[in-house]
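Section 5: illustrative case.
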């Protein structure tokens, strides 16, 4: 197969096209240009997107990693040549599956290529599965080492050991596995487990038949016991029903007698009520209650009246004087008292003057002058007369004051007015209290007179309490008559109901030996009948199960046949295991033969890349490599060498594997030569150029060295 061009909307690629030529293609571009994206695009165009892949902590599935950055749907196209035909394959996305829509057609005519489909495109074009191509013809720096893979191992084994890919041994092995699985794939599936299950089923059926026989005999015995118990319980129930009938008949007779007695009581009450006037006892009782309550209320008011106020006693100084007369007298006496006090003061002044004059006259006499004697004598006479008159007047005023004080013995003049005012206030308060008391007593007496009049109109000369008792008795009598009517109705209805319910019952046919209550009898009888039905159902079930299980002789015959069949199947199973063991040993022997061939070609390529330094390469069955340099006596594990040497070794191994498994498919390399030194890079490029003579080689690189080598080679 040779690729002409690829057009991709894939990851960072947006409708971009990569054109390729036959032979060696060296595509030099910087990091993040899209080299790895083109590689992933090619693989997914050939084999499709794995939609089942899920993101993990270390990897992102291609459906997410290469989703177009522009948000467009993932799509692509590859123009190629396959078996001499120019073909175009296209993949587009639908709403649910990226790259899920596939078409392959002839480029020139547009006619579909039916042999290519979405699922088999890579297998048909390259001749290998996806995992084989990823480990052989698709070489990236990140996964140069070749890990063990079942599909890769199978193809290498078939090619090296038999020279073709027919897979006869594998198909034989698969046939043996299928036959073995048919006999027994696990504990539950296969002919042997089925036969063993059938054998166990037959054994269980035989055991079940024996159990059914024992259960049937036990159920039949229980059925007979229940029939006898039910007969005795029904006879006991009949005896209880008959006893209840006799009891109800007696109740009926008593009810009829009670109805007759109720009628007699009603007739007697009707006679008493007929003597009463047309009754309005309820209204009259309400009026009597109202009058009695009013009487109690007025009595409470009478009891609540205060005592009649007593007239205060007049003070002794105002005896037989009204309060206003006492006030007038005190005011008059106070005026006289004040006047007498003023007179006493004037008389004292005059006497003092006279005494002064007498003193002056005595002084003149002492001068002993004639004129002085005459004047002094005259003055002395006048002074004596005036003094006598003054003393007489003062005595009179004192006497009058004493008379005024005598009217108010023991009272100071300044308290006379307060005494009179207190007397006036107490007298006024008394008359006001007396007036209030008189008004309340008169109003209450009027209400009592009105109430007594209404009571006489209602009860006549009878006390109101007695009248009320009379009305209450009449009301009770009418109520008793109503109760009697109801009692007669209830008694008659009860007797009628009992008469309807009391049906004649026949006595039991056999002697009753049980002593259960009626409720216990019904419960036990129902339980016995229920158990009897269950026993009948179980007997029918046992009979049906016996029919399902079949006859014992037939089951034993089938069981023996099944045992013989299991023996034959187990012998067949043992034979298959022996065949598998033999085939496995043969396959292992053949598998050990393919390693030398791959090892030889790997050694040739590796020796050329390293300038004849490493001349021995050995590959184990798991594809683990060991190498030795020309000057080394022993093989060493490849992982002990430098990173560049390991890259060169695994590149040689992948090219050797690709030559065997994908001879017509392109070889794609993604930065696979980064860690090669210049000499080994030149050697590797020569090998790739030689490889490109027989197939298309596509080398993506971020280094200028590969591109320079290609240019120099073209010049030469």
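Designed sequence:
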């Amino acid at each position: 197969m040779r690729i002409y061009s690829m057009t991709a909307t894939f990851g960072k690629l947006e409708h971009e096209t990569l054109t390729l030529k036959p032979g060696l293609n060296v595509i030099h571009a910087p990091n993040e240009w899209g080299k790895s994206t083109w590689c992933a695009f090619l693989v997914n165009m050939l084999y499709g997107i794995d939609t089942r892949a899920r993101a993990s902590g270390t990897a992102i599935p291609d459906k997410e990693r290469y989703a177009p950055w522009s948000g467009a749907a993932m799509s692509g196209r590859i123009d190629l040549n396959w078996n001499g035909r120019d073909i175009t394959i296209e993949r587009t996305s639908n709403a649910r599956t990226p790259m899920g829509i596939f078409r392959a057609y002839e480029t020139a005519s547009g006619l579909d290529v039916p042999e290519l489909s979405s699922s088999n495109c890579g297998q048909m074009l390259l001749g290998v599965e996806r995992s084989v191509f990823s480990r052989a013809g698709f070489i990236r720096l990140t996964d140069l080492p070749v890990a063990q893979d079942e599909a890769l191992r199978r193809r290498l084994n078939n090619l090296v050991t038999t020279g073709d890919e027919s897979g006869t041994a594998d198909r034989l092995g698969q046939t043996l596995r299928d036959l073995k699985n048919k006999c027994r794939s696990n504990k539950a599936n296969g002919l042997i487990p089925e036969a063993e299950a059938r054998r166990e089923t037959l054994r269980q059926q035989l055991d079940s038949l024996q159990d059914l026989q024992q259960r049937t005999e036990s159920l039949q015995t229980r059925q007979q016991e229940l029939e006898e118990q039910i007969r005795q319980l029904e006879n006991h129930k009949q005896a209880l029903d008959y006893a209840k009938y006799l009891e109800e008949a007696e109740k009926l007779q008593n009810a009829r007698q009670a109805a007759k007695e109720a009628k007699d009581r009603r007739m007697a009450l009707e006679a008493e009520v007929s003597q009463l006037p047309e009754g309005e006892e309820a209204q009259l009782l309400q009026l009597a209650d109202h009058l009695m309550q009013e009487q109690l209320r007025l009595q409470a008011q009478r009891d609540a009246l205060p005592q009649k106020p007593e007239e205060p006693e007049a003070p002794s100084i105002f005896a037989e004087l009204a309060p206003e007369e006492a006030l007038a007298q005190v005011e008059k006496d106070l005026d006289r008292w004040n006047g007498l006090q003023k007179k006493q003061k004037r008389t004292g002044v005059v006497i003092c003057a006279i005494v002064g004059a007498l003193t002056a006259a005595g002084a003149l006499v002492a001068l002993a002058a004639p004129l002085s004697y005459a004047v002094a004598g005259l003055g002395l006479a006048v002074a004596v007369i005036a003094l006598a008159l003054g003393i007489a007047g003062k005595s009179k005023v004192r006497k009058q004051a004493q008379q005024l004080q005598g009217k108010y013995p023991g009272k100071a003049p300044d308290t006379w007015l307060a005494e009179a005012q207190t007397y006036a206030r107490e007298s006024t308060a008394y008359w006001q209290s007396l007036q209030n008391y008189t008004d309340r007593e008169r109003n209450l007496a009027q209400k009592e007179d009105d109430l007594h009049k209404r009571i006489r109109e209602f009860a006549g000369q009878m006390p109101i309490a007695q009248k009320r008792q009379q009305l209450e008795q009449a009301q009770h009598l009418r109520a008793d008559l109503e109760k009697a009517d109801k009692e007669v109705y209830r008694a008659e209805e009860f007797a009628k109901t009992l008469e309807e319910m009391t049906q004649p019952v026949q006595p039991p046919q056999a002697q009753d030996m049980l002593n259960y209550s009626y409720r216990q009898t019904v419960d036990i009888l129902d339980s016995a009948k229920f158990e009897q039905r269950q026993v009948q159902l179980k007997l029918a079930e046992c009979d049906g199960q016996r029919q399902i299980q079949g006859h014992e002789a037939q089951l034993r015959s089938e069981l023996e046949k099944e045992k013989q069949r299991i023996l034959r199947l187990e012998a067949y199973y043992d034979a298959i295991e022996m065949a598998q063991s033999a085939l496995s040993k043969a396959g292992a022997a053949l598998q050990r033969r393919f390693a030398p061939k791959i090892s030889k070609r790997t050694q040739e390529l590796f020796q050329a890349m390293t300038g004849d330094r490493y001349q021995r390469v050995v590959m184990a069955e798991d594809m683990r490599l060991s190498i030795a340099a020309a000057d080394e006596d022993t093989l060493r594990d490849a992982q002990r060498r430098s990173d560049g040497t390991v890259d060169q070794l695994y590149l040689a191994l992948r090219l050797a594997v690709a030559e065997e498994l994908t001879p017509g498919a392109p070889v794609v390399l993604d930065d696979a030569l980064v860690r090669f030194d210049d000499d080994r890079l030149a050697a590797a490029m020569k090998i790739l150029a030689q490889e490109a003579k027989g197939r298309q080689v596509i080398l993506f690189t971020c280094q200028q060295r590969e591109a320079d080598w290609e240019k120099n080679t073209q010049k030469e």
